[in-house]
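Quick one - inputs below.
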Amino acid sequence: MSIHPGTAAKRKAPDSQSSSDAAKVRRRSPTRVNPALYLFPLPAVAVVAFFLVMPTLQAFQYAVTDWNGFSAAFNYVGLDNFIRAFTKDSLFTNALTNNLKFVLLVVVAQTAFSLVLALLLTRNSRGSILLRALFFFPTILSSVSVAFIWKFIYDPNFGLANSVLKTVGVDGGAYLGNDVQALYWVAVTQVWFHSGQMMVVYIAGLQAIPKELYEAAEMDGANKWQRFKSITWPFVAPATSIVVAYTTVQSFKAFDLILGIAGNPPKSALDILSTRIYSTFANSEFGYAAAQSIIFMAMIALVTWLQRRLLRLTPKGE
Amino acid sequence: MLASLSRRAILAIYAVIIIVPLTVVAFGSFKSTQELFAGPFSLPHSLSPDNFAEVVGGQNLGSSFMNSAIVTGISVPLTLFLASLAGYAVSRLKGFMSWAIFGFLVLGMAIPAQANMVPLYVLFGRLGLLDSLAGLVVANVVSTLPIAVFILGGFMRTLPKELYEASSIDGSGPWKTYSSIALPLSAPSIAAAAIFLFVIHWNELLYPLLFIQTPGNRTLPLALLSFQGEFQTNYPLLFAGVILASLPVVVAYVFLQRYFVAGITAGASKG
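Output:
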């Protein structure tokens, strides 16, 4: 270690990774890269290549066939599966619409709600820490468990929600039984399920804001809203992009929750892309299911990309 | 004053919205259906374990519990082992190779499980991995390996290189340096990743649903899901199942709460 006292300090200095520095470090380094090191990532690379990348590429191949999963024979049908999904299959377009609606609802509600919770619980008091632990708790439960709990809450005859409403003399609703509302109620469940997790991401972002900024702003006479708008919000922008991106993927994949709360297969008001793909697959339409799953993947990528374009959330000072 | 009051009100209301359903489920698991419907909030008349006995005995939840324990017990350490090996290599290799390996492994995070489930099912069929716990282990490991590499590799890159160099000068090979320096120093991120993986693997539903046919090979979430069809409104039984399925995670959460938050947030901040 004493061979090059200068390099460690130099490397730790921010933004010093110019190519000349890196070259210097390499030249002075007493050790070459041991070739055996290349063996270390090999198992992981092999597993990912064989079970993740290869099947994903294969999905593109299946997607242009009419394969049923069992017979040896199948035909290449070009883009027929994709055309069918968008123009002839109302089950699929219904699931697509539901899914986009669900994602939009959950992303807006969960991002706003988790930020509110985080703002209310930034202080490191005993009570805050206890409440954070409580609000985070639902995240660790299985989707099926959460689904059962909420199925009971929403049960029109014996459920918790209507029992509470009855005590104050209000007639309750049918909740999941109401096709217009069902998706909204599942969105509520999803927000209950995961807001605590996103709250924690926001708290981490909020705690990184220097206190002096607020003090200075207060001295300048900025009111609460102004302080939020010009200090808090820009500073939590990176946390917001994480929350929005993660919530998007999470709500696109609300598969488990839907199956648990609505049954398998779910009724059309609660059918989303992942449950639709599963139904198509269970119906032995492998080629068509593969095409649907490619649309699903493209959808997630598209929505995530759009969010980045529209929100343009960049960390303060970058 | 008013602001602090409304702050308290919001927090109190949300606390109630979390606590009340969980309490009703806990109480309800000891009740009969009639007792639950008569008064969901009341304490159970007796702490009779009938519902639990029924779900463990009659519904195979006991064997599902064992299956889940086996699958999770193998999947989590195996994922951590493969990911830490890769993460270590990535943190020590330089330039393009390090970037390429890391990029390749982490790219998998962008592939949702539903996207490749059809080809994976076919592949598992050919390899004889369908309807087996081994198949579930493979699926779990593969699906979470990218994010585990992301967490562990990201952490290992921040470890001071001088320690590795000192270890090399002392004559240690890569394996020795990995096991005696990189692994112990990465303990915090390994713990975080372990808890993250534990929650995911324990609660995994899609793969068992796809691959498992024999009831005896069901894991807990799948067994629970099959309840839903059989006991449409037998909520006390469903609740007993929910409690049994959640027990290990909840107990761990009570004791390791801080690490859970760190772990699941490490997973969430993948962006």
